[in-house]
Amino acid sequence: MELNDITAIIIDAAMKVHSRLGPGLLESAYESCLKHELQQRRLFVTSQVTVPIVYDGVMIDAGFRVDLMVDGKVIVELKAVEKMNPLYEAQLLTYLKLSGLKVGLLINFNVLHLKDGIKRIVNDL
After folding, report:
1. Which of 7, 19, 61, 78 is 20 to 30 A from 38 (CA-CA)?
2. Which residues, 6 or more positions from 21, have their beta carbon under 8 angstroms from its beta carbon?
């Protein structure tokens, strides 16, 4: 499946979760529901995936974890915050670089309309 197809499915699933739950819950609730919704759509989803750092030829587990990894191709970072911080985008881009993946989605569920809470980040590798 192509990256654009996967991200379209993720966004559609996130919209469904948001329309059912609305804003105001903890990030963990959205993560669990979105994971379930994506699995219902036959995508392979893992949560809290460790992203190690390779430094000086040594793999170091620095405790970095991505919220969701979908089909081993797309990282999804979830937020439930009042205001997005540019550091969240930088964090996702770093995860993409460390994992060698190209595309990630930053989704903030604490918005009135979810379309205003979605940002696609591309790692130019």
Report:
1. 61
2. 29, 30, 33, 109
